[in-house]
Amino acid sequence: MKTINVILFGIGNVGSAIINQILQANDQVFNKQGFQINVPIIVNSSLAFYNSNSLGHNWETDFKNFSVPYKIEDIIKFVKHHELENLVAVDATASSNIVNSYLLLIENGFHIVAANKIANSLSYDFYAQLRNHIKAYNRKFYYSTNVGAGLPVLSTLRSLKESGDEVLKVRGVFSGSLSFLFNQLSEGERPFSNILKHARNLGYTEPDPRIDLSGQDVARKLLIIARELDLKFELEHIEVQSLVPKQLNGQTSLEQFNARVLELDCTIEQFVNAKSTNEVLRYVAELDVKEQQAKVKLITVSKNSNYGLLQGTNNLFEIYSKQYGNEPVSIVGAGAGREVTATGVLKDLVAIAQSIANVQSYF
Ligand SMILES: NC(=O)c1ccc[n+]([C@@H]2O[C@H](COP(=O)([O-])OP(=O)(O)OC[C@H]3O[C@@H](n4cnc5c(N)ncnc54)[C@H](OP(=O)(O)O)[C@@H]3O)[C@@H](O)[C@H]2O)c1
Predict the structure, then answer these.
(1) Is 339 touching ligand 1 by the criterion CB < 6 Å?
(2) Domain Aspartate/homoserine dehydrogenase NAD-binding: where (predicted)?
(3) 121 and 36: one domain?
(4) Which residues of the chain have pLDDT under 70?
(5) 144 lines ligand 1 (CB under 6 A)
(6) By alpha-carbon position, which residue is closest to atom 30 of ligand 1?
(7) pLDDT tens digit string along 76-99?
(8) Per the annotation, where are the binding residues for NADPH?
(9) How far is the CA of 321 from the centre of ligand 1 (A)?
(10) Which residue lies with its CA nearest to atom 18 of ligand 1?
């Protein structure tokens, strides 16, 4: 039985769901495939909980009682001292601090699985450097939840490309949180700021919801798709329509934004008033591969169109390719939520574990 040792960065919505899903799947699912996933270290932004074996179901209490301040070097020292093998760093933060440590982690034997999109949406130079490092140290870097949470979007793009098809255009609703916000708004019962509060409580938004509302999160996803299709894009190449009123962006802190969130309603009302009664609002991303053009913006669509009929946090990805012609490959499903995102992270982890344990998987 191979043991995979996961060091988990971030124990918020996604991180805590990852731990619980691992604890559930170890006996029934993973052991039958010849591996076990242990989680000897979990950290938040300032504290780490170490346990040279693995976490148990009481991990939250243990973290509360026994966690200590840490530096990344302490983590590396700990895994070396305890001779832990098959190391995977799972990044379930939205922080650039961890990303700054990716290269060091790789040099010290870690594979990386990231729900965090930052590494793939920094400069193209860093994007290329990270891949060179992964190759040089013979490690793996998986990030399938960067686009569409648990949906198979990046893997579909890759398999079309690898089988000789040519992706011409990718279009859709890429944000589970914005999808939820505008689907709820279409019901017409509550102000936007109130729906936003609800979405945050359900764990659908980014820790700072302005990352969603400014279009930045969707732009990052579009950038990751563009790079997956070999376009050497930077974030600045993407035309972005922000929904955050100017006075609440830039200089305001997250606390100030939260306190003045009602000011959002005015901005959104202008879009609502400009559409007809059989239309709804959708925040849409589009990449034209041939023209090398990318944009994200709020549009009006018919209530009865594919876009208009989206429910809940559902995403829609339409992939137009040479072989599929005018009928795009469409992927629809939950594009946000702690459980589906954790499942997506686990799929990446399991792919690494299977390669370590030499398990043959058709996919
Ligand atoms: N939620 C979703 O539906 C979804 C879907 C797809 C992808 N994602 C991605 O998943 C990631 C996590 O999202 P989330 O909703 O779980 O966020 P969250 O609930 O805010 O949790 C973030 C966690 O990261 C920790 N953290 C922050 N900075 C850190 C640092 N420098 N070092 C170590 N830990 C740090 C936080 O610790 P503190 O509590 O100490 O700040 C917290 O435990 C994000 O990158 C997000 O884009 C989320």
Answers:
(1) no
(2) 10-143
(3) yes
(4) 361-363
(5) no
(6) 45
(7) 999 999 999 999 999 999 999 999
(8) 93, 117
(9) 34
(10) 12
Residues 19 and 101 in one domain: yes
Q: Is the dihedral of CA 196, 249, 271, 260 positive or negative?
A: positive
Asked whether residue 312 is assigned to any structural domain, the reply reads yes
The residue annotated as part of the active site, out of 2, 64, 161, 221, is 221
Q: Does residue 363 form part of some domain?
A: no
Task: Examine the residue annotation and report whether 221 is marked as an active-site residue of this protein.
Answer: yes
Per-residue confidence (pLDDT) for residue 141, from 0 to 100: 98
Ligand 1 atom 28, closest CA: 45
What is the distance in A from the centroid of ligand 1 to the CA of 307? Answer: 29
Give the model confidence (pLDDT) of 5-42 as tens digits. 999 999 999 999 999 999 999 888 989 999 999 999 99
96 & 173 share domain: no
336 lines ligand 1 (CB under 6 A): yes
Say if 241 falls within a structural domain.
yes
Owner of token pair 């590396």: 76
pLDDT score recorded for residue 362 = 62
Q: For residue 316, give its domain range.
A: 153-336
Q: Whose CA is nearest to atom 21 of ligand 1?
A: 12
Q: Give the annotated binding-site residues for L-homoserine.
A: 206
Report the number of distinct structural domains present in the chain.
Answer: 2
Long-range contacts (CB closer than 8 Å, 24 or more residues apart) made by 197-202: 197/261, 202/337
